[in-house]
Amino acid sequence: MWLLPQRPRLNEAPDSTGPRLPRSGAARAWKLRVAALALLSLFAVAPLHAADDEGKSAKPSAGAQDKAQKGGLDCPEPPPFATDPATGKVSYRDCADTPELVRLQGGTFMMGEHTSTGTLYERPLHEVKVPGFSIGKYELTFDEWDACVRARGCVKTPDDKNWGRGRRPVINITWVDAQQYVHWLSRKTGEKYRLPSEAEWEYAARAGAEGRYSWGEGAEWACEYGNVLDVTGGETFPNWTWRATCDDKFATTAPVGSFRGNPYGLYDMNGNVWEWVQDCWHNDYNGAPTDGSAWTSGGECGKRVNRGGGWGNHPRSMRSASRDADSGEGFSNAIGFRVVREN
Ligand SMILES: [Ca+2]
Ligand SMILES: [Ca+2]
């Protein structure tokens, strides 16, 4: 494994299977829940581009009966759907102790940087059609990771740098470690969990917006929406001169959901920790898939893409199009991930 140094990222040059066991009488309730979720999701997320697979997204992948036949790991009955009062979006879980998910309808969007900023890595701008999927409302937390370790689904107990575990995003895990987690989560729930494709990640981060950020163009708003290298971070790390002028009050990682959610009801897509996605690194988007799938051929598959910027970065790394990559066997205190569940 490689310990990745904290540093300015590529574009910061200036300074540097077994599903849930149904509970008693839960089968009918589960079916109703899935059906209600599909209905709610029609209203929960309305991409600027017309959704084109409503039929698909409204169809649950597996009913409780299928789950009963497969058997599986312990999966406490999940709570009812929750509506986030801050964003108005609905979330759900497969088990009481698995990550909270927001269901996104499919749609078509332009992937890459739309403005004159950014790097050649983020070009050419290209159209991608993304099928519907569910994605973690938050970055995966230490609590969620540690549950996988206790269940012997994950091997590594990552160092938290004494910043705290609980609701802080898990850090110091490699891309390979993240694969272990999603495999375990799939076995536990009977659903198909994986890392997001890079296209899915950007679709979710943009939340229908074509500008630099989901909230528009202004980097000065970064501290409202995410944890960056801010005034507080600058006091802790005075040699990191690429800091922003706003103050988000966190020098290192922040508990997930400490900032405003994006229009799709997702938190910390910008900042806090970079997020591993499935794709191999490619220097640009020439030849990239246009169907929303991960790009896992060609390029450099020893390096895996991570997105969204982190607590040690200037807001320019938080742009929706910003991208970077590291060895899939490397880890750092600035990289975590969030899960995707296929519908
Ligand atoms: Ca900060
Ligand atoms: Ca993030």
Automatic annotation (TrEMBL):
Name recorded for this polypeptide: Formylglycine-generating enzyme required for sulfatase activity
Region (Disordered): 1-22, 53-89, 306-328
PANTHER family (UniProt xref): BLL6746 PROTEIN, SULFATASE MODIFYING FACTOR 1, 2
Signal sequence annotation: 1-50
Sulfatase-modifying factor enzyme-like domain location: 98-341
GO molecular function, one term: formylglycine-generating oxidase activity
Keyword Signal set for record: yes
Gene3D superfamilies: paralog of FGE (formylglycine-generating enzyme)
Organism: Panacagrimonas perspica
Keywords: Signal
Lineage: Bacteria, Pseudomonadati, Pseudomonadota, Gammaproteobacteria, Nevskiales
